[in-house]
Write a structure and sequence with these properties.
polygalacturonase activity; EC 3.2.1.67; binds 2-acetamido-2-deoxy-beta-D-glucopyranose; cell wall biogenesis/degradation; mainly beta; eleven-stranded parallel beta sheet; Pectate Lyase C-like; secreted; elongated; signal; 27 strands; six-stranded parallel β-barrel
Length: 394
């Protein structure tokens, strides 16, 4: 962890920032007072947990304060319910995961918030130290799956503001089974070739807003799983990575649908996909209904607009390649820029459940090759209005 120690030196030389947690924040629990050391080698997990427990048991609003510095942090779960519904975490420092992926990578999660109502996390840098695991995966050896850096589960009224997450072993941030989550101004950074390092994954959650994010990863920028409703994504830049994806959906038979998703004012740079809906070619109860994609700029994106209902890795377990996922009311408005492949718009829907109510309006996607860009439709129906380039095939 040489890189860790160098930074510690720089931080000891720097002036420590004094917390400004705002009036009315109630008691402040500084993790250093609970024994945390920013020496990058003492596991701060138990100090964090002690500070959490004190804050969580407080009947008044409480703040857990993490001063500047680098803290080695092992696997930790911050559990509620808490006595008050106002728990703040004010993080000026960096949390560094162990470089020993053999242990963390098998448990699957690094830092988890569970069953908390009224949680705000301000700032913080989370370094998942994933490079060792990625190298293992690239070598073809038998490696652990990896750990998601930050998970918010079974929680409501959550604010995540100004957080940075880098080099996760697996996903950077997962929002699972939550109500009302605001994710604002987060930065996510991992190399374009790092495996499965999705930026933000949302599932089983309602009322999640992601705004003002910059996400560079080796996998999906934002992925949207089963049971996501009332999701709002705005002002997000993606790339490198695989773009914003609803799915994969429909792997299981009894699966909750995805409904009412808005993705607006997004920028994709050199990504594999732009705006994607992806379902397994398997029978299922799942659906996707009411999606608005608007105001997107594509720069050199392989598949700027794509619905792919024939996902079936290794061609196993997909009888007739027929997806049961019913896709309806999906609109694309004001999407422009450049496609890195000739087919800039691709609707490859299910023969058993054709896509219905797709709307295209004011689309202009160009291809830099010798031929103009094309649109391709299979089992897809809907309407086009305004200018639509390439010409609609609906
Ligand atoms: C759709 O979701 C948005 C939040 O993203 C919400 O404001 C709106 O009320 C929802 N619409 C319906 C019909 O539930």
């Amino acid at each position: 962890m040489a890189h860790c120690f160098i930074s510690v030196l720089l931080i000891t030389l720097s002036i420590h920032l004094i917390a400004s947690v705002g009036a009315g924040a109630g008691a402040v629990y500084n993790i250093v007072d609970f024994g945390a050391k920013s020496d990058c080698q003492t596991d701060a997990a138990s100090a964090l947990l002690s500070a959490w427990n004190a804050a969580c048991h407080s009947n008044n609003p409480a703040t857990i304060y993490v001063p500047n510095g680098k803290y080695l942090v092992g696997r930790v779960t911050f559990s509620g319910p808490c006595a008050s519904n106002k728990i703040n975490m004010q993080i000026h420092g960096t949390f560094v995961a162990t470089s020993n992926y053999a242990t963390l990578g098998r448990v699957g999660e690094w830092i988890v918030f569970d069953k908390v109502a009224g949680l705000s996390v301000y700032g913080g840098t989370f370094d998942g130290f994933g490079s060792g695991l990625w190298a293992c995966k690239a070598s073809g050896r038998n490696c652990p799956n990896g750990a998601t850096s930050l998970t918010f589960r079974n929680s409501k009224d959550v604010l995540i503001s100004g957080l940075s997450s880098m080099n996760s072993e697996l996903y950077h941030i997962v929002i699972d089974n939550c109500d009302w989550v605001m994710v604002q101004g987060v930065k996510i950074n991992a190399p374009g070739n790092s495996p499965n390092t999705d930026g933000i994954h949302v599932q089983g959650s309602t009322g999640v807003t992601i705004t003002g994010a910059s996400i560079r990863t080796g996998d999906d920028c934002v992925s949207i799983g089963p049971g996501t409703t009332n999701l709002w994504i705005e002002l997000v830049s993606c790339g490198p990575g695989h773009g914003i994806s609803i799915g994969s959906l429909g792997k299981g038979y009894n699966e909750r649908g995805v409904q009412n998703v808005t993705v607006k004012t997004t920028m994709f740079t050199g990504t594999q996909n732009g705006l994607r809906i992806k379902t397994w070619g398997r029978p299922t109860d799942a659906f996707v209904r009411g999606v608005v994609f608007e105001h997107s700029v594509m720069e050199n994106v392989q598949n700027p607009i794509i619905i792919d209902q024939n996902y079936c890795p290794d061609n196993k377990g997909c009888p007739a390649q027929n997806s049961g996922v019913r896709i309806s009311q999906v609109t694309y408005t004001d999407i422009h820029g450049s496609s890195a492949s000739k087919v800039a718009v691709k609707f490859n829907c299910s023969p058993a459940n054709p896509c219905i109510g797709i709307e295209l309006q004011n689309i202009k996607l160009t291809y830099s090759g010798a031929q103009p860009a094309e649109a391709s439709c299979t089992h897809a129906g809907g309407t086009a209005s305004g200018f639509v380039i390439p010409p609609s095939c609906l």
